[in-house]
User: Fold these one by one.
Assistant:
Number 1:
Amino acid sequence: MVRPDVVLHAFNWKYQEIIDRLGEIKEAGYGAILIPPPLYSDVHSDHWWQCYQPKDYRVLLSHLGGKKELEELIKQCHSSEPQIKLYADIVINHMANEDRGDRLDFPGEAELANYRHNRDLFEANKLYGDLNEGLFSGFDFNRTGNIQEHEWWDRERVIYGDLSDLPDLMDSPWVLLQQRTMLAALVDMGFDGFRIDAIKHITTRMIDNFADSEALAGSYLFGEVLTTNDEEERIFLDPFLQETWISAYDFRLFQTIRKAFEMGGSLRKLARPENENNGLPWDRAVTFVVNHDLPHNDDFREFLLEPRDEHLAYAYILGKDGGLPLIYSDHNESVHRYHQDHDRWYDAFKREDIKRMIRFHNEVQGKEMTMLYESDLVLVFGRGDCGLVAINKGGEHTSVEFSTHCLKKSSVYKDLINNNEMTISGDWFTLSINPRTAQMWLCQSDLAVNDGV
């Protein structure tokens, strides 16, 4: 079996909690974990967005934990068999929005005094550098003001403007050196890769500065190029794909999934998305059904799938070939504003349907995907000669007939999601699918011995 690669986004989890739950994470079949930004942020605030406002590159400390816990987490992940990779979310577009007179000095005079007063604490959590000195000053920022509503289609303004008063770093030699040094130090600690936050807001020069650095050779890099329509893809995503080599969240596929599952949409759009420019190239895509921005931001909540469609969409991204699937699992952070979110993604990482889908994904990794049946409401495709995925988004029971040319004949298959069994024989087969359900079948001879999942 190919090495597990599904990424768990442990959103806003404390590092010690991840350490304590590594057994559960491994048992669920994950191959990697994405943690929130570890750079120094306000330790007295547990708001999820606080980690996205760094105060200093040279310190690893937040309300989620510090350097000691991170070192232990890396050690535990890498001592697992098979090894679990650890990715860190990194913010390099901007620094924290702080209400103080020297708001463009980082970490600022008050924080430097705090370093001196609590020297042992900050030296223990130091990543690199001399904490007696400041890191950035007003000379290190693009001072062009906030991006205005009418400017969100202007790529230059999106790159050089401020996001909601967050000081926007320029790509000067000093800033680039600090970013390169910070990421190299994280690699030395043992991090296997990085998600680059708000990457459509930074210059290609800033991206190339770390992406092409020798220290990061071998690291997995992916960025958040947040787009919601074809025009934004043309302005931001297409240049990113042309000008860089790193991977990205597959917002293009996500929008295709969303439209396919909406009323009047067609699942045919998901049959060959990459060929029809409805998804990123298979080797540059981080696929997802929900990410942390969608539940927490008013502007993006309209893009959330209905819970049942979310289940079906997970079957699709974990059943299909290509892309690196990411599973979002939170602690009800969005419930404070949106009560309907209660327990929707809480501990989603170990939800039984998700675990069964990951098991299917791990079993069929690298096996060819063959489309067997497609209509507006139903999609059926094979994975190699031992896997079969069926999705019915419609509200009625349906039966579909398809050729079995790519599957093992006269073999018993087990549906991992619903725990049913069937025998496939002959050149044609008729499959029955209940309304609003997905099936993921594996040939019994290819199933692991433990049938409990």
Note: Confidence is low (pLDDT under 50) at residues 446-453.
Number 2:
Amino acid sequence: MSVEYVLERQLAVAHGYPSTGGSRPKFVVKAGSTAMKDGSPNVKRKTWLTDELVRKGILAPDPRNPSLWVFQQDHEFSSASAAGDVINDGNLSAPQYWKNTTTGKSLKEDLASNP
């Protein structure tokens, strides 16, 4: 596995890592990560993607907090931003918010220094 990143948005905390190389890698969110059910009402949402993940059993209600979904298994997204959109329950330019758990640098910074 590559470097691990963490994304914290409101009550949600997610862990993941890039699964491919390049400047816009696919991104895996790890099982046990959480996502907001109802994010800010002022942002666009990809509800279709969240709905699909719930339908497939990848996201389920978090038994500890009714405001959250919890990932039941690792899931690969097309990008860190797509993962961030689901976790945030709204559009998010996620590479700047995913933080390297070792260095504290953003995924965006790490991608810029390792093209």
Note: The chain has a mean pLDDT of 91.
Number 3:
Amino acid sequence: MTTTAESPETTTAAAALSPWHGVADAAERAHWEAVAAEVGARLGTDALERDRANLDPHAELNLLREAGLINLLHPAEFGGGGAHWSTALHVVRVLARTDASVAQVLAYHYINASNIVFSAAPEAQEAWFRASIEGNWVWGDSVNPVDPALEVVREGDGYRLNGLKRFSTGASVGDVVLLNARITAGEDADRFLYAVLDHDREGVEYLGDWNALGQRLSASGSVRFNNVRVEAADVLGLDSPEAFASLLTPGIQLAFGNLYLGIAEGALAQGTQILRNRPNAWFLSGADTYRHDPFVQRTVGEFVAQIEAADALAERVGIHFDRAADRGGDLTWEERGELAIAVAKLKVVTDAVALEVTHRIFEVTGSSSANQRVGLDLHWRNVRTHSLHDPVDYKKLEVGAHHINGEFQPVSLYT
């Protein structure tokens, strides 16, 4: 993918300075929450039908473009939204209430595009940002670190790429595809290359094999690279030894926490609407309607309390991430580790809350809500599918090992 400036040297580390300063204020949050709520309402009108069609979300992403959500995190000085991470991931949460698949694509887009900061040389970043903003690019990815089947070898001033990557979220619908591949030979052998390819690059094949229980519109199918030429201008950079560059992992895990929390909120909202419309009551309850049944009220009370507790934690961790992103190259590994633990706590909590709420909401909505035309199962299918992304037990381990022994897990694209 050619930008308007020369390609960065691939040996350059991530930028010492961050484009994200301070923390989000109330005005910023309120503005983008309102925008996301409007888009989410539009997506919610036919989310179930689109889920059943299982088609890539091209039209849905156009809604995000039109609303300004695609460029929300990009610096205002280059024409972007100039928002903070806590705001961007709150937007993901709002969208997940009605369409968790599209919310996932947007979350991955934010992480993928942030590689402009985390991987590209400082002098090249403006050109990348301007190209992305002016093109309104959605950034898909082909990164999956547990599927290291890509082979990239040096060829002249560029590279030659071959192999297969599964679970390439957003790749088939993105304007560009971020790839991550280990270099197999030469002076940079065993380092990871980050490069950006335009969607229609010769030799890139989208297999369209995503057919999961949930998150069906997340465009997470496999991509095959058949002798693909990676030009020097396509290269963002190589993996960096800086703590700041490694914010990608707590960033994506924080996105997951917000995704799951949004799904739980969506299930509770839909379930509450169904419950309020239920006639009569269980004959032993002594109540006139189900909404006045004490056991129903008790169950909903549990859900509300759990979600609001998770909400408070999500807000706190979001601000923590804003402050870490503001640190730029001054971020220490200790600070990065503390952030990762905070994010892991949120992941543990929201995973449990979302699975609990989406599963047990049927206890108060009744047998008729299991009818497929209602679609209440969409929330459970979505969180059940995505929560398998990486085992939550290992997030519990992270938290426990740190609490007992002060240990941090080895840095990776999962920890």
Note: Residues 2-15 have pLDDT under 50 and may be disordered.
Number 4:
Amino acid sequence: MKPFLPAILHKLGWKSKLALLAPTLLLAGVAWRHWQGPEIEAETVMRRDFVQSVVASGRVEAPHRVDIAAQITATVLRVPVVEGQVVRAGDLLIELEASELQAGLRQAEMALQQAQARLRQVTDLQLPVAEQQQRQALSNLNNAKAQLSRQQALFAQGFIGEAALDQARNALELSDAQWRLTQKQTESLRPQGSDHALAEAALAQARASAEAARARARYARISAPADGTLIGRNVEVGDVVQAGKQLMTLSPSGRTQLVLNIDERNLHLIALGQKALASADAYPDQRFPATLAFINPGVNAQTGAVEVKLDVAAPPAYLSQDMTVSVDIEVARKPQALLLPLSTLHEAPGMAPWALRIDESGRATRRELRLGLRSGGHAELLDGLAEGDRLLLASEAVEPGAHVRIKPGAVGPAKR
């Protein structure tokens, strides 16, 4: 007797035979696909130049800012500059009303002229007159001495009396007193004398008063102390400004720096002189070079960050004070390194990372790895895999030893 199923199939038509075998074939296909495993996405180990970088954001900072204020209380007459304007050192920024200051300056200059005239009077007039008077007094003294000598001789001969001799003595004493007085006057008017010193002191005081008046008058014209860009203006024509009130802010021209806060965990990676590429958040596609120039020796206890500064040798024209910037500091470079995505790693932060490699039969095999540099979502592979190996993403729920199928077009390279 023939087997039951073949006998039945022999009697049925081909359509009936197909309908009867379809469930069996479907079950066989499902079993085959189950044995092959689920469809997954994979990454490929690639060999590329690899740069490790520390990424941080910060701000643009000029060496310093200059707050410009008035030194007197006055009314604003003119403001010939606008915010954002580039100015040169000495350019007028603000002009204040200065009629009272100008009057004080004219008064001080007149006092200076008077002091100069007084000194000239001492040296050019009074001193020569005093010297002439001294010479005349000396001549009178010599005549008085000669007269007394003659009178004494006549008195000894009995030709004159005691009264005539006393008169000659008095004349000599008077001439001597006059000579001594003219001598003192002359000494006083000479450069080392008291009258000359008083005239010079008065002149110096007048000069100081005039210079002070000029300085006060200059307060009415507020000029740029250095080349730079005005990044703030808080004054208008007609305002009455107070002494010390900030009116403008100047960002001086000079070395431009980028100030960043780096996580202290990256402190061992950075060093002075390292190169970086930066971009302003407002212009993300325009990158410019910078150089690490300063590392703060202290760590912020609250944030765990270290402040660093980078010099920008040729800042782009659009770069402005306090702009937010993103910076990639290159801390290491490996040419033609084997790379794999961090997304394929299991226990990535630990000491024994591993990944699931898909072999030629589609089986997921666990591979222990030794890694080097890590940056930008990728790691340098030192040992454990070869170029071209396909890896499962760590997010896939696949056990080691299981079969998997790679989705068509779902194999990505390990990008830089």
Note: Residues 99-157 form the longest helix (59 residues).
